Amino acid sequence: MSSLDPETTKIPLQHFLKHLTNNGVPVSKAIAISGQIYKTHSTPADLRSLSNLTLNTLGVKDAGDRKLVLSAFRKAGFTPKKVSLKRVREDSVADPRAPSSSSTPTQSGNAPSIGAVERIITPPRRKRTRVKNEFLPEGPSDEVEGAAVGNLEFNEILDEKVLSSKHVVINRAPVMTAWAAVVAEHLNFKREEALSIASVYTEMNAISRGAAIGKYDKSQDRSMAVSKDGPQPYVELMGRRIPLYRTQHEQWRALSKNSPVPPITAFSYISRSFRQTTSAVMGALKLLAESYSPEDLNKQGYALYCEFRPNSEEWGKRAELSCSTILSLRKKNTATGPESEPDAFSINPRRQS
Question: Is residue 245 domain-shared with residue 182, that is, in the same domain?
């Protein structure tokens, strides 16, 4: 095969993680499993050949995890090539195990011209066959910071007349993730940094609430706490201290279970949750954030979230989120913006510009 054959081209780690997290594998589990399988199985052809036995050999010992991973890659389109019955009959004497060379491979590449959000929310092609995986006995490397789908653009709608009629029925978690990303970006973090921070911020809040209502052990909540005077760099975001990691490319990534969280995780979560309303909701949140100074936004951000979040008290229940409600919370008669206080956030040790 040609070296340019997409079937033998290595899949970037951030896209590999996206295939897992977009199809039902929890973020922390996806990162851990990627560390076991990515290095030796990093092409579409490798993924198509992956099996339950191979995963077990590579160190994925939990049967439920193996099933979850195989299912995720099946949903992502990495299915074994089909062999026509006619070809099987013709070749069975010579080599009954040989696959048909004329079978059509599943297309696993991204369309070259569609936007980032569309790329995320467009359902992948699915085939009814067994799925496969990839291998990497190394933790997430600097690929964690690579430019992800469509440069992570939401294409925010900022026209208030258009936004006033937009709403979506959704649960609270993706709303919190979207808002945390907007707030972090307003505090002068780059988009990639803000999305990573938003993932961990939402995770910390979910664990705290889950521990309070008995869904999680309280030790999980305590394990994510960051000491104010300790050596771990962190940022204060809306009442939470988010642990940070400095990459070789001089960018910040938030840490979850001591692993840096890639920005594609939050980007995919937001895009798939809000779907066609993503641009509208992100635009409304941006307009709300820009009406506050960075310092005031960081202090009042969670209270603002409580005002516009879906009105659902039950865990995971959906309710309406209205862009008009978000816009109504904007601060009146202010002229401050993200450039008025470029260092409103505080990192320990201090972030270097």
Answer: yes
